[in-house]
Amino acid sequence: MNTNHSSIIIIFTVLISSALLPLPASARCNKDDEKALIKFRDALGGLSTFPTWDPKLIPCCEWGGQDSCDNGGRVTSLDISLSAKVPPKELTKLRRLRFLTVKFANLSGPVPDFLGEMTNLESLDLSFNSLSGSIPPSLGALTKLGGLRLDRNRLTGPIPDSLGRLTQLTFLYLSHNMLTGEVPPTTFGGLIMISTMDLSRNRLVGDPSKALFGESRPTFTLLLSRNLFEFDLTKVGLPQSVSTLDLSHNMIYGGIPEGVAGLKQLQAFNVSYNRLCGEIPTGDQGMLDSTYTPKWIQACATPPSQSDIHRINDE
Questions:
Q1: 74 CB contacts (<8 Å, ≥6 apart)?
Q2: What is d(CA 133, CA 107) in angstroms, rounded to the nearest whole number?
Q3: DSSP 8-state symbol, 229
Q4: Half-sphere exposure of 190 (CA within 13 A, CB side)
Q5: How many Å apart are CA 21 and CA 216, to the nearest integer?
Q6: 117 in helix, strand or coil?
Q7: How far is Cα 224 from Cα 204, in angstroms, rounded to an integer?
Q8: Which residues pair with 181 in a beta bridge?
Q9: Among positive and negative, which fits the CA dihedral 107, 158, 218, 257?
Q10: How many other C-beta atoms lie within 10 A of the C-beta of residue 212?
Q11: End-to-end CA distance of the chain
């Protein structure tokens, strides 16, 4: 092969390789997404609220975090901190958005119903805010969600049945709210991919065992403490893979299932401050030693006094 042919092949190879490389953020920024983010910015105070959200200074692919666009320049991730009532509806114009995080932002008002229109979301985190009202049933339309965090807000009302449609969920955090009502099997019975669920520190009632327990469930961490759950723990089948189980500060009765001592993955087990009675299983694992001894374990007929409950809740 002569030198000229070799040079042509080398140049052609370089051109192909260059074409396959991701474009810089400034060149990739989709104009429609840029307009949507500018409208979002302007609805919350403009450049005084987001001084770096200026296309003359920084491309829009870096506004929501370091390089938050795909190779086509569409915004896929938005991680922001702001002080506002609720995020404006302009967010729905970000058609490719997959990850939305707005936490520690002092958000107030209801959880926006329009979030249910953002059907490409795979992760939604609105934790550590001051959101109030009920969880909108429209969130059940986000069937691609793998993670949902609404914890540490001021949410009230029941958990909507529509969340049962989120079959891709691997973690769900609803703790530290004021949610009420029961946890029906129709809501969580079909969430077979859940590995972490935190419903603690609410006002939930009834028997959640059929919806949340079962030896074949993949649950790794289950936190239900400081609610008003009331059921017989004796015959409950616990997930074989469970690592952390906290049922403390409820009104659970019966005894601790013998099978608990055989849960090889179990690292933390707390059923204190309930109405349990009977012996504490030990087994070969030695997991249920004095560290996990439930209070009032021998006094299932004598639940904690009101003064004890108030003292416990203040801890």
A1: 30, 33, 94, 95, 96
A2: 13
A3: E
A4: 12
A5: 45
A6: helix
A7: 9
A8: 204
A9: positive
A10: 23
A11: 82
Residue in the structure block whose two tokens are 């530290």: 176
Which residues make Cβ contacts (< 8 Å) with residue 161, sequence separation at least 6? Answer: 137, 140, 184, 186, 187
pLDDT at 15 over 60: no
Pairwise CA distance, residues 36 & 249, whole Å: 46
CB 177 within 8 A of CB 201: yes
* Model pLDDT, residue 279: 80
Residues paired with residue 245 on neighbouring β-strands, in sequence order = 222, 269
Q: Could you give the dihedral angle defined by the CA atoms of residues 215, 218, 221 and 224, in that order, rounded to the nearest 10 degrees?
A: -60
How far apart CA 105 and CA 100 sit, in angstroms, is 13
Contacts for 144 with CB less than 8 Å, ≥ 6 apart: 98, 119, 120, 121, 122, 168
Cα separation, 206 vs 230, in Å, equals 5
**pLDDT tens digits, residue range 57-115?**
888 888 876 568 998 889 999 888 766 667 778 889 999 999 999 888 888 899 999 99
| Cα–Cα distance, 156 to 170 (Å, whole number) | 23
Nearest to 234 by CA among 216, 249, 253: 253
Q: CA-to-CA distance for 280 and 306, rounded, in angstroms?
A: 25
Angle at 280 between CA 274 and CA 284, to 5 degrees: 140
Render pLDDT for 131-173 as a digit per residue (tens, 0 to 9): 999 999 999 999 999 999 999 999 999 999 999 999 999 999 9
As beta bridge partners, residue 178 has: 156
Tokens, residue 86: 């609720």
**Integer Cα distance of 43 and 88 in angstroms:** 7
- Which residue in 126, 163, 161 sits closest to 145, CA to CA? 163
Q: Which helix (H) or strand (E) holds 116?
A: none
pLDDT at 85 (0 to 100): 63
Please give the Cα distance from 36 to 97 (Å, whole number): 12
Share of the chain above pLDDT 70, in %: 79
Q: DSSP states of 175-231 as a string?
A: -SSEEEE---HHHHTT-TT--EEE--SSEEEE--HHHH--TT---SEEE--SSEE--
Q: Phi and psi at residue 216, in whole multiples of 5°?
A: -90, -5
